[in-house]
Structure to design on (1662 residues):
């Protein structure tokens, strides 16, 4: 990863919070201070990859006690940051906001992966495009840190023919054929279906992957029985920590979940600071 | 609000998802279609203020059945969008991501306001700066739609002397005095404390507001007894839907909660589309 | 395609040329004029998709006599533009630069497609990432207009393990396995090789596509004989209009060429303008 | 030159290719590697001025064996780059795309300069505004590296009254007078003509330079005979390596050519990489 | 202050002046030079906080003889800058433009503060939003350097109900009440009036501050007599160095002046450069 | 002029003032209002060219009673703006700031032109690069509106060899020769001198224009006597309304003045608004 590509984004985020001036912390300018980011939660830490170089870019010294993907526990020190107090405190909230949100996503992903693989060791848990506008690259990164598959970054990197495409176009097979002819050979083509029959049709029309949308595990099982190993099978729609095991048990290759990005709980992180003599 | 100030942000969000090309929906170019955004959830809708002008900017026709702040129920149609199918589907996900996240925040805020005011009709529920990096203006807006107080937009628009400031500076009264002398007369000064004694000291030193951080309701009550009406009193720290009533009962003026932005659940919205003859 | 996503790019291009002021054309302000973009060349027109909405955005009236992908001949009128002379002439050069470059790429692509398919009707001609920095989306579009396959838009949308990756990593099979485990199921994996043996190894290790780099047609033929239909086969490296037929004859699925973007000749277009009474 | 003014442009170019992640090269993270940019072509190298500081900005070590403007030959090593393999390979294509395009322009310019001066040692070869949108500053730089004159950077830095201006305005002399009165004394005024008579008229009306557009050398010669030394004379229109000598022989001061930017062939450069123990 | 938040702004300013190339100073590339910024004026220096880090960012060595807020006199050396001559001279004008404008504002502010406090030691002199578009953060900073109060940074950080708001809405008290209910508790509410009666009404309706607009000192005095100490009183409208003492004498808390930003004279600064052997 | 090139700049300026929300004017949303921009000053209006299209872009209706360059008097209505009150008032300050600053510059320029031409009808008054960072294009425009010559837009559009260049390089003639050889034929070359001897030397070395810097009129006169008509002669340095006549009397071609941009007084404009039934 070229972390430099993220610096200007992080500067924009800091500008959102601290421009033109942190009217509180400015009064501490000239005092050297140390801040320790600590966890008040259990989970998987994510986001250090972005934050550590950024804090260094701002001239702060950083000691990282953890790396992205490591488990963290209540009371763990994650990073220590030393520098001018006015600067340390101006960037505190951005640091915590980014780490706690990404760690929340990584943690939810990790939990889901663990649950799913307890019953189906080969299954992958994937994200979706249900991310916060403007913040997707960070959230997709967090999914990977949590052991998940990022799925599509955007609408340009793979084809996914969804229910609305089919509803508008009218004919599943013809649409798949049209798409396969007109799409780069380097892009995969996935098709969303919600019945056994459509799954078979999509497979026969040449889909690389089939997304079984909003289907019950009991309806998915026969499709897996028929198509497993011949096409990638993905289950999606309303999958959370509560029901992921049942979906994993069906034998699908991929379980994707919007929950891990749009509704996961942020990890509770805090920073304790003190002056340094 | 000058909605034009948000158009380029929304274009950037669309670019994140759909640049240089939606390689699926492009195959539907030339087909006229209608999409209806529907709710599969209960709550308060927020974000139409941004999305409706944006969809119109993109040349789509929009009929809005709801306005920001209205209650929505399972099955409600929120907006109808008509236009070229390739365009409608390329912007579907951004539309849903923005509305569902903002509505989730508005809904959580609204619930908290209702709970808090059931016991303390004058109390305000406020947000915090615990927002998604880059997306704060939208999330603060959603708080207001839900009936909450946005609190500070950023570090420049009011002073909040927090625990870390005091820990580093060393003396509460001297820091408050320093800040009041050096801060514009147009900015309020709030001070975060966690004991009765510090609350009294902050009040005497001239704070406009006092943030009672991570204190139990039982510890807050005597402070309210002493200072109510003489200074604005805000309770904060770990307040969620589960305990907000207890905090409201203390008689504080303001209850602020990071939960409503960093950990609220997105509302479940969907779009159903069909071709038009 | 959401043309609005390109408007700000085109404005930046116009700014490059005409900011803060076209110090010549300003003297014609207030005179209504018509300009006709004409061809002095043979080829395929490309770029109207961007330029026509942009000229309209600038308040000019446009009549398009051609659409992207149509053949143009010496003397053909492509578009007519009417409006204030100062504005028409300020945007003339950008209009011509964009159209002539994209049409040059589309024309070279079209010629190559025609040649290749004369011997191998199923073969696809693909572009590469050898594009002008900052201008790739336009150039990839021109490839498609010319009948080609855009190949990867960027390094994020598919995996291509190249000679340098293998040289650095050291073991072809292990690298392919590592990549396949760590890459999203929605991304294809292509491997670049330059010998028969490596092609077989890449196939066996699970590559979705194999790029035969800088190999003679005679060396490619046996690989096609062995792997055709079991994996996508792409020939690349030094392929131009002069030798594309020989490569097509090998039976590969894909022929990719940097030539069509980095060294194709711009089409010769011009604009004739006149005042209107 | 302030190279820092180009860093953010180059970062944008890298973002175009490698954001959010190079999904292939990421698997080589942690391996130190060396890449050598080599020539497979003859020509003049250009672009190191931008690329070398940029690679250093990205934390890579660079040894430059050549400087912009030097001749390069088949097999020459141009620069060596050392650093993390994932980073080296993510930036390889941008490095090559920029250097090969700019070197192609510098080489075409240098060849044209050499040819033109073989017969007319004082003549200058100039570029035009026929550049790739968004990329002009780089291409103008390459013209200078090749020994050419960049001509106007944009429509704001000098006046050039072209055929279309005259066609719309109607009267050559009056337009020149109008322009000279209304234009800053620090900007030159050039007038495009295509006949002997108009050249004389433009000279008499006070043009600083006269552009003889699309005229045959035999028609240019008498104008040179008449006006040489009294006004700058520039020949333009369809001038390539094939006919530049004939134009140079006419004795004009300047020969300008769109060919060197819009249709020159990119130089064939490559990077060979290997791991380092 | 996070100076990094200003670097990209300063780069944009330099780009405005020196992109793509300083066509004069480039001829001095390779010569090491020293430039000394000197004052030809009396006043208060402001802007070094931005310029010094920026010059260092550009690789120039800087010795600062003054700090923002210090008095400067005719002939004083302010900073010395050493580096490549082409770079030093390319940034000279931006350096001088920024310092001379900000110092002019700081100086006018300082003079006004001194005059006002000679008669009323507790009075504050405040700026307004009458700043140069795009340059406000710098100008507000200069006001503070001169000893002034920056007042609102923008329309979002505090409420100021002005004459036009009242004229449109129609009822002073109702508007104040509406605003106080709908505005965050962290934002102050100021009301602009121009009569004694309205001042009393605004006070009674709960304004935090009252702006006495375009009133004569003799009309302000009775309002101060009535409301001093119960609400913040600000005088504004046509206040310059000539009449500030009379306004200060009224006993108001705040005197605000657009003059100090929109019509103050730039300080006369210059740079003397010389080559270094 | 392509006004669209300025819209995004004006949006940025509005964002500086009104993002994310005008917390006062929002309370007037839904009320239709009319605002009239009036003059409380005498002068020349400038900036309508930018502001009128911008207000229309924001959906406001505008009636312009004046055009840029017209004289305005105390009490004159300049433009009327009608639309939603919240929007009208949010953009009021930007409208006034831009118009009053540009009109101040145009007025100062116009006054200087009038004075100078009263004695020397052919003289031009020119601006300098002493402009507000980031705002130059607007200020140069105002100079032209006031009847002045904008001089160089930036360091790239013409050569000006200044005292510092010569001091560093060491030899006037050699530097001029070097520059003339290396500079595009389309750029003029001006040389700054401060003695009669250097003026002659610069002329002989081929300067297109000579800037007589910080010289007394009496020292300029003999240079004009010698060089008038053979080279453009420009006087500069400390020229204000007080002494411009003396400089004009010397017979120089150009008088340039930093005063008109860096120290001119903003024109006093105001907006009166009222609700509409």
């Amino acid at each position: 990863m070229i972390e430099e590509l993220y610096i200007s984004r992080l500067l924009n985020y800091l500008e959102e919070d601290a421009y033109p001036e942190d009217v509180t912390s400015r009064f501490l300018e000239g005092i050297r201070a140390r801040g320790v980011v600590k966890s008040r939660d259990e989970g998987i830490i994510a986001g250090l990859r972005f934050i550590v170089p950024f804090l260094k870019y701002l001239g702060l010294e950083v000691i990282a006690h953890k790396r992205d993907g490591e488990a963290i526990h209540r009371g763990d020190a994650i990073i220590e940051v030393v520098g001018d107090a006015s600067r340390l405190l101006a960037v505190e909230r951005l640091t915590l906001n980014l780490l706690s949100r990404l760690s929340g996503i990584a943690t939810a992903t990790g939990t889901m992966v663990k649950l799913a693989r307890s019953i189906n060791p080969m299954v992958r848990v994937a994200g979706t495009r249900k991310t916060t506008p403007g913040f997707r690259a960070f959230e997709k990164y967090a999914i990977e840190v949590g052991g998940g598959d990022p799925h599509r970054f955007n609408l340009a990197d793979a084809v996914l023919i969804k229910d609305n495409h089919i509803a508008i176009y009218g004919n599943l097979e013809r649409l798949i054929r049209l798409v396969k002819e007109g799409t780069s050979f380097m892009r995969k083509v996935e098709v969303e279906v919600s019945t056994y029959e459509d799954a078979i049709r999509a497979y026969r029309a040449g889909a690389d992957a089939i997304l079984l949308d909003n289907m019950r595990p009991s309806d998915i099982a026969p499709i897996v029985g028929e198509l497993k190993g011949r096409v990638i099978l993905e289950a999606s729609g309303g999958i959370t920590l509560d029901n992921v095991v049942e979906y994993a048990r069906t034998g699908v290759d991929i379980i994707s979940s919007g929950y891990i990005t749009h509704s996961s709980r942020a990890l509770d992180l805090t920073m304790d600071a003190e002056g340094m003599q």
Notes: The longest helix of chain C spans residues 92-119. Chain C has eleven helices and twelve strands. The domain at 118-262 of chain C is CATH 3.20.20.70 (TIM Barrel). Chains C and E do not touch (no CB pair under 8 Å).
